[in-house]
Structure formats: structure tokens, C-alpha cells
């Protein structure tokens, strides 16, 4: 830190900085544990997203990372994607896969199925991005973002306000 910055530091800044460093270490430990349990922390899997406007967005993923986490971490510009942050309450993370990729995905749960029923433009190969975790077998996949989205939470609020 420059002398000017340290002259302007408020009282207690050292302690706040120490707390921040401890927080960072704690976060790193949690992240390391997650990837030890769920895969590697190496970012070596590729995913292509065909966005609503037809533009292809490419990002590198870590094994075990969900497609929602990938979109957020890379700040991919997909309008409205992941509004409920992966709590299975919105269906805005709806993605469409090709049949070959779809057949390799983890089994779908009843909760995901219920939320998918509310998704815009549902297809036979639709899944929710917050429920799909990257594996080596999925390296290089291309997924399509539907032309529009529906947010189950917003739709519910609108219905209630009409009643
Ligand atoms: S982010 Fe809301 S259901 Fe996936």
C-alpha cells in the first residue's frame, strides 16, 4: 500500500483487513473442500451457450460446477438467467440440449421436472442449468438458451394480483 493510502486509513482498518484475509482463507478452504469432494478445481472443460439472439458464448468450466455457477462466474450475458440462484423456484435457467448430450445428463428429479413444466418453450431435451453439473464427458457441449423465459415466481405473483 502506498504511504498516501496508509495515511488515509481509518482507525481499525488493520483489523478489518485481517478479518477480510481470514474470510478469504475460509472461502478458499471451503472451495478446496468442494472440489476435492466434487471434482477438480482445474478449469479445463468447455461449454458453448447459444444465446437468445443466436450469439455463441463460450466459457471454461470446472468439473462439478453447475451450468448456473458457470454463467455467473464468467458473467455471461444471458438475460434473466438464474433468477432464483439455483433454489429450483424460477425456471429461468432453462437450457436445451442436443439428444446425445441430454442422454448423458444426470437423472432428473421430480422437483426439477415440476419447475421445468413452467419453463418457456419446453422441449423433450430441456433441463435446468442449475441442476446440471459438469463432468469430463460433457466437455465441449453446446447448449441452447430458449428464445424467451418465464420466471415461475413472477408468474405466480402476477396471478395472485389478478385474483
Ligand atoms: S436458477 Fe431458478 S430454477 Fe434454476
UniProtKB/TrEMBL annotation:
Top-level taxon: Eukaryota
Domain 2Fe-2S ferredoxin-type residue range list: 45-149
InterPro entries: 2Fe-2S_ferredoxin-like_sf (IPR036010), 2Fe-2S_ferredoxin-type (IPR001041), Adrenodoxin-like (IPR001055), Adrenodoxin_Fe-S_BS (IPR018298), Beta-grasp_dom_sf (IPR012675)
Residue stretches of biased makeup (Basic and acidic residues): 15-24
Pfam families: Fer2
Keyword rRNA-binding tagged: no
Co-factor requirement: [2Fe-2S] cluster
Alphabetized UniProt keyword annotations: 2Fe-2S, Iron, Iron-sulfur, Metal-binding
Region called Disordered, residue ranges: 1-24
Protein name: 2Fe-2S ferredoxin-type domain-containing protein
Species: Ranitomeya imitator
Taxonomic placement: Eukaryota, Metazoa, Chordata, Craniata, Vertebrata
Amino acid at each position: 500500500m502506498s504511504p498516501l493510502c496508509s495515511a488515509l486509513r481509518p482507525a481499525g482498518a488493520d483489523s478489518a483487513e485481517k478479518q477480510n484475509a481470514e474470510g478469504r482463507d475460509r472461502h478458499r478452504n471451503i472451495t478446496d473442500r468442494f472440489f476435492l469432494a466434487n471434482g477438480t478445481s482445474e478449469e479445463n472443460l468447455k461449454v458453448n451457450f447459444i444465446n437468445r439472439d443466436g450469439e455463441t458464448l463460450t466459457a471454461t468450466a470446472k468439473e462439478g460446477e453447475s451450468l448456473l455457477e458457470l454463467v455467473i462466474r464468467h458473467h455471461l450475458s444471458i438475460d434473466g438467467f438464474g433468477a432464483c440462484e439455483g433454489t429450483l423456484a424460477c425456471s429461468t435457467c432453462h437450457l436445451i440440449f442436443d439428444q446425445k448430450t441430454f442422454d448423458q445428463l444426470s437423472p432428473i428429479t421430480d422437483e426439477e421436472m415440476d419447475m421445468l413444466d413452467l419453463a418457456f418453450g419446453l422441449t423433450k431435451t430441456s433441463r435446468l442449468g442449475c441442476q446440471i453439473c459438469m463432468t469430463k464427458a460433457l466437455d465441449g457441449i453446446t447448449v441452447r438458451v430458449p428464445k424467451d423465459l418465464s420466471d415461475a415466481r413472477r408468474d405466480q405473483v402476477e396471478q395472485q394480483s389478478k385474483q
